[in-house]
């Protein structure tokens, strides 16, 4: 009887049939894929072994150049659902048609590190969306931070060279904490605002599912009446914006460098589809003129207190890629992929990106036909006269390969636009002026928004920025670079500069260094920054807390540590409530297998104290039971679980009446803490859930100086 058994691999890919014959790329069946063709069993391999040559040839060329920036990423498929159409602003179908649903592919990434680096580096995160609209591809290629380091794309190669590992030794990987980055930043004051965001908790998100997205650059919308508007794109996560602390990020990098990738993958596999609200910040020409900064300057943010964000739809990710390379690695984004109703502004950073991204695809994917790869192919039919080129996949069947032509029923131009169809139109705008290599003076204020951002943070937000600057500049070995950057901080905020300077053992400079002013003066005819700085403004929307969601623990992960003699009834109560709330409770013990409760019943262990660390969880539950807790108190790894959870400001539940683990850990040093909950009744479990929903007890860090 024919063997018809199928096998499913661990990743859930399509079944591999055991009765299917192995073939070459040309379809030739292969009898032996374990031995090369040789002259005798111990003789030399033969050059005529075309099967071996094909296999090794393909293997040798499996890799393509990684992205220069945003090399490490993760992606997913999904859908954008329009809830509140805006035809009055844009004629783009996916923004103006009631009930429109648009397929998307989203890629998240870090910026600085290589493909093999950690997910938890202190870094900007890419947030790029490919909308497969009925009118063509629209790529929104953004970040999780609304501003950027530089104003003009001509400085981008220098920025990347500076922040990447240093040339001499390729060190450090995926880190800005080194000489060349801070040397560049100290000489380019326009980076000040973005560096403040980079030193904040925004740069170490809890997950991709819990971070904002921004288009960064200013775009334009065009409606059917020919009216144009400036627009900024925003994405707000349904789960709220949450971050980890720096000590935790470093430890996660060691325990699970794929932490964000795995989090996204597992959430989608479990049906916990990540969602974001897509919003637009729309400005008329009159509103744009009323602002005291230039919206074409990518180092500036428009606080939503000034121009409200209108949320118009929901982005949901609901399907993982079938193949990482074919989809996530080969996806090609480009700000120049537009649809009718959306256009560019004159933002000089965006203008430079229009050249760079297209050039990058040719370098990485090896052909101008990269748009024919399935992940990059538009869903609507394409009609044009692009022909030939390496790796062409489409096979044109018409005989007219030029425009205009009259054969075969006419060309697309005659059959579309002439019959009333609507094509892409640029926003009509006058452009005049003499050629010049200078910045507009409206780009000259580099410090007002940096100061506003810092002063808009909560007490813990400011502390984390102070700690981040102290760490990063502490890694700089050139003292003149440290001192020069302290000069920038002294303009942004004197108190911040004083705190960081004290930790570095340096005096606080009076202001910008001569080298910094000289560099800025090469860019501006009259460098106006210090004359224009405006202090005293604060905007709550610039803080993480403004965007937090404290009402749910959905998709959160809680570690339940126990060993023999634990309280099974208490554990079951906790398990039931955590499951009801849409969170996960993992049972962790000192060994795998079945662990015996005080009642003699058993539970199966999910992970051990060695294989899963405290930093990989959002909260900790020490299961009740005197015998269990006394044994845990003697296990160093269990004590470390508690100490790390405490240090990282997480909610901690202590079951039962035992005091053994408390006395063995740093819990004994904390006198009063609302996020440390003793579990005695069902009501205490509810309190614990509320504390998890608060994400972190930042007051613990402020009060106890644990970090």
UniProtKB/TrEMBL annotation:
Domain of life: Bacteria
Pfam families assigned: Catalase, Catalase-rel, Catalase_C
A single MF term (Gene Ontology): heme binding
Reaction it catalyzes: 2 H2O2 = O2 + 2 H2O
Record location of the 3'-histidyl-3-tyrosine (His-Tyr) cross-link: 334-357
Active site positions, chain numbering: 70, 143
EC number: 1.11.1.6
Protein name stated in the entry: Catalase
């Amino acid at each position: 009887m024919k063997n018809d058994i199928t096998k499913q691999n661990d990743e859930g890919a399509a079944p591999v049939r055991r009765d299917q014959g192995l073939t070459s790329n040309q379809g030739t069946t292969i009898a032996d894929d374990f031995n090369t063709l040789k002259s005798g069993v111990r003789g030399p391999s033969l050059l005529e072994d075309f099967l071996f040559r094909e296999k090794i040839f393909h293997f040798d060329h499996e890799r393509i150049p990684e992205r220069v920036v945003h090399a490490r990423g993760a992606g997913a498929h999904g859908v954008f659902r329009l809830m509140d159409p805006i035809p009055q602003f844009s004629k783009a179908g996916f923004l103006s048609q009631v009930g429109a649903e648009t397929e998307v592919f989203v890629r998240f990434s870090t910026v600085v590190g290589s493909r093999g680096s950690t997910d938890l580096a202190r870094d900007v995160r890419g947030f790029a969306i490919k909308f497969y609209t009925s009118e063509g591809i629209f790529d929104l290629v953004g970040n999780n931070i609304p501003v950027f380091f530089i104003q003009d794309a001509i400085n981008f190669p220098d920025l990347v060279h500076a922040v990447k590992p240093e040339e001499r030794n390729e060190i450090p990987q995926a880190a800005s904490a080194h000489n060349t980055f801070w040397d560049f930043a100290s000489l380019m004051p326009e980076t000040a605002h973005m560096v403040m965001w980079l030193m904040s908790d925004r740069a170490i998100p809890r997950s991709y599912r819990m971070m904002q997205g921004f288009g960064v650059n200013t775009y334009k919308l065009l409606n059917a009446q020919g009216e144009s508007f400036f627009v900024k794109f925003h994405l707000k996560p349904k789960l709220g914006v949450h971050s980890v602390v720096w000590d935790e990020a470093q430890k996660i990098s060691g325990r699970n460098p794929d932490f964000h990738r795995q989090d996204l993958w597992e959430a989608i596999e479990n049906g916990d589809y990540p969602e974001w609200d897509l919003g637009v910040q729309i400005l008329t020409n009159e509103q744009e003129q009323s602002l005291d900064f230039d919206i074409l300057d990518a180092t500036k943010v428009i606080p939503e207190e000034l121009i409200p964000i209108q949320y118009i739809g929901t982005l949901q990710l609901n399907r993982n890629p079938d193949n990482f390379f074919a989809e996530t690695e080969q996806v090609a984004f480009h700000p120049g992929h537009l649809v009718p109703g959306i256009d560019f502004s004159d933002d000089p950073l965006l203008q430079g990106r229009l050249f760079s991204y297209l050039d990058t695809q040719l370098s990485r994917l090896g052909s101008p036909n990269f748009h024919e790869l399935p992940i990059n192919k538009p869903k609507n039919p394409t009609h044009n006269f692009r022909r030939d080129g390496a790796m062409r996949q489409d096979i044109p069947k018409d005989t007219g390969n030029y425009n205009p032509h009259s054969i075969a029923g006419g060309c697309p131009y005659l059959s579309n636009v002439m019959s009333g169809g609507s094509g892409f139109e640029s926003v009509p705008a006058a452009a005049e002026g003499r050629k010049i290599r200078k910045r507009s003076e409206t780009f000259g204020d580099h410090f007002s928004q940096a100061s506003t951002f810092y002063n808009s943070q909560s007490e813990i937000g400011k502390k984390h920025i102070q700690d981040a600057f102290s760490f990063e500049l502490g890694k700089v070995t050139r003292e003149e670079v440290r001192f020069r950057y302290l000069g920038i901080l002294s303009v942004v905020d004197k108190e911040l500069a004083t705190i960081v300077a004290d930790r570095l053992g340096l005096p606080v400079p009076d202001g910008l260094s001569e080298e910094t002013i000289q560099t800025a003066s090469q860019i501006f005819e009259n460098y106006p920054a210090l004359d224009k700085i405006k202090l005293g403004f604060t905007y709550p929307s610039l803080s993480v807390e403004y965007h937090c969601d404290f009402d749910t623990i959905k998709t959160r992960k809680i570690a339940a540590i126990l060993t023999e003699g634990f309280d099974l009834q208490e554990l079951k109560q906790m398990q039931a409530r955590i499951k009801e709330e849409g969170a996960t409770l993992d049972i962790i013990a000192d060994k795998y297998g079945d662990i015996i409760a005080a009642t003699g019943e058993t539970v199966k262990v999910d992970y051990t104290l060695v294989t899963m660390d405290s930093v990989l969880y959002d909260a900790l539950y020490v299961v009740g039971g005197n015998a269990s807790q006394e044994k845990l108190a003697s296990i160093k790894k269990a004590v470390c679980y508690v100490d790390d959870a405490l240090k990282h400001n997480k909610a901690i539940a202590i079951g039962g009446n035992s005091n053994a683990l408390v006395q063995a850990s740093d819990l004994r040093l904390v006198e009063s803490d609302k996020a440390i909950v003793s579990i005695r009744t069902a009501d205490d479990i509810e309190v614990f859930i509320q504390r998890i929903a608060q994400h972190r007890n930042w007051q613990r860090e402020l009060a106890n100086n644990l970090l």
